[in-house]
Hints:
Helices cover 3% and strands 45% of the residues. It is mainly beta.
Amino acid sequence: MNKYNGEERPVAGGTTYYVSPEGNNQNPGTKESPWATPAYGAKRLKPGDTLIIQGGRYVLSSFGDDMVTPPASEPGAWITIKGEEGARPSLIGVNNLYAAIEISNAQYLRLENLEITSNGQQPFRSGISSWEPAAHVVLDNIYIHHLDEIGVNFRDIDDLKLLNSRIEYCGFGAVGGPKGEHGGWRNVLITNCRFSYSGHYYQGTPGPLPYDRPDGFGIEPSPGPVEIGDTTVEHNRGDGLDSKAANTYIHHCKYSGDAPISLAMRNCILSHGPGRVYIGPDVSFTSDHNLFYWPGHEAPIEVAGRQYTNTEVEEGAIGAGILARDPLFVKWEICGQC
């Protein structure tokens, strides 16, 4: 059994193949006689197989020959593509390549311990991309940096776990995608990641670039749920975390940035937390039709250095239609990590 974020996932036995910079695509792909290119190896995987990319540099320049395009798999037989333990390989895109890894229509796929970057001179667009729907994908310990568009660029994704990863210096943003056509982003967990310096690199320079507000995380309207936890977003020229999903839960995150912060809160309940709701002095804050409750205290929220009492909140001091009273949950409990 493999375990990801506490979830058991059975994996059927498959074959383990290898890729090495010293390999040859005429080889059988064993550890002793590895293949030469990740793209060649990925195309030959079957359900349950694992491809280990040994340490070194792999230059990707051709859309057809070099872009890694793993096939779809099935429940209980995940396909895994991962870097060699202790020797993370570098996938280096050049020649305006669309993406290093394209996972359109892939399912039951794990990508682990990979570095994706440019050579710092030639254009290279996205790190991991999916234009067609993908589902049941785990990205773990991925380092993407210094490329021209989006680090992780998905249009429609269902059941995504992005774990323990660092994505920075991407021209158009670290993680995001265009408006979905088949459900958008659904059932997404992002934890222990860092999304930084979006917009501080473009085609070998720090900019300027065509897109002036690249986010750390930015997705278009989607049903969700999207959960982002224990994640740092810093120095992005757009927003830090911009989720337009209908169901988004952000917690235990740290933010610092170059752009002004605007927060609009509507139809939310913030209740039974360990302290009052805190809105910092640098935040442009608008609020309506929310509920704020801090049991046993008279001031459930602080905005720009001022604490507002329950009475002031309900009288409209911070917006219309806001309540400051017990929401009368049937059951509530504070997260054990709080």
